[in-house]
Specification:
Elements: H1 30-37, H2 52-61, H3 82-88, E1 94-97, E2 114-117, H4 121-140
Parallel strand pairs: 1-2
């Protein structure tokens, strides 16, 4: 039996009510609309957090954003990452990443065979600043 292909497409700040598949009157998402016609998709998916950084650990590991020490480390210390489960079940896994928080620094390479990074330098700098912000502030307060 052939395993079905799986495409997990996550998009930051995508409004369902602005997509053709939701009945929106403008042709804003023709490619996604065609994909949905031949796909199984989750119509009632809900996020446990309002932004990408805390949402992705939930999506990738079925754990709460603040579990396992919080979301600052992504999925690095969490069990059961989706790519690892798929890999252990004979799938080849690939990440095409456009958001710097989803890189290997935060464990998103666990179980992934191939990774493509597609983001600009400004995004990397912003993510790095956010990552070290607490240390810089602690240094400024004389705590380090």
């Amino acid at each position: 039996m052939t395993k079905p292909n799986i495409l997990l497409l996550t998009v930051e700040a995508l409004r369902f009510d602005r997509l053709g598949m939701s009945g929106y009157r403008y042709n804003t998402s023709p490619v996604l609309d065609r994909m949905v016609e031949h796909s199984l998709w989750c119509e009632n998916g809900f996020s446990l957090a309002p932004s990408t950084q805390p949402s992705m650990p939930t999506i990738m590991t079925s754990s709460r954003p603040l579990s396992y020490g919080g979301y600052d480390l992504g999925i690095k210390n969490r069990p059961n990452s989706l790519p690892l489960i798929l890999k252990n079940n004979g799938y080849q896994t690939c990440h095409e990443i456009t958001f710097p928080w989803l890189r290997s620094t935060y464990g998103y390479d666990i179980g992934v065979d191939n990774i493509g990074h597609h983001y600009n330098v400004t995004g990397i700098v912003g993510a790095t600043v956010h990552t070290i912000r607490s240390h810089v502030l602690a240094y400024d307060r004389g705590e380090l």
